[in-house]
Description:
This protein is of the alpha+beta class and 202 residues long. It has one domain (2-201). The chain is 24% helix and 17% strand. The protein contains five helices and six strands, in the order E-E-E-H-E-E-E-H-H-H-H. A four-stranded antiparallel sheet has the order 2-1-3-4, with no helix packed on it. A two-stranded antiparallel sheet has the order 5-6. It is elongated, with a radius of gyration of 19 Å. The relative contact order is 0.15. Mean pLDDT is 75; it is low at 196-202.
Amino acid sequence: MNGGSIGGGCIPDTPGIDDYDVGKKRYGGGSTCGAAALRAHWTPGMTMRISWTLFPYPGWQAKILNLPGVVIDRKESDIIDQYDESYSTEIPLPLPPPPPSAGDDFGQVANITVHFLPCNQIFITYGTIEEGRNPVYWKLFAESQKLCTPRPSIKSMADYRKNKAKMDAIKAERAKIPQVILPRYIKQLELEGKLPVSSDKK
């Protein structure tokens, strides 16, 4: 993650972790920034605009040229930059609905956390006791991973040249993934009449 915005507040940059550790470690951030504005109580039709930028190959850096000062290879940097991904979507709140202990009062939740899953999906938790006791939330990463092709591990220009065709295909695939929230939650919200945005905006 390279920052973004949620409801007018900013998303801190999130350090990348080694490709082999993705899905095994749950941490990130390390900085704070402006908070999002949110009404005290949930009301029908409530939505939040979320935008974010992703650096999909955090271990891939342009080489430093043998020149005075710190001068990166601009040609390599431009190649790396073409794989940056930017997304923006409007999602309904609550998604999913807050657990019973919170009701419609956002003041009763410990925090509202937006989770960015592997294949452009977004999931929200509220820091309640019920969520802490429900292990299903930690299985969502694996559920999302099944919706797109895994990225190759890219750490050098040699890796890039070897995997360029696959990288280009994955970039095109990610751009066409229709949903930004897990499909089963879209269905759940539609059945409950809590989806204030049409399904074609997923």
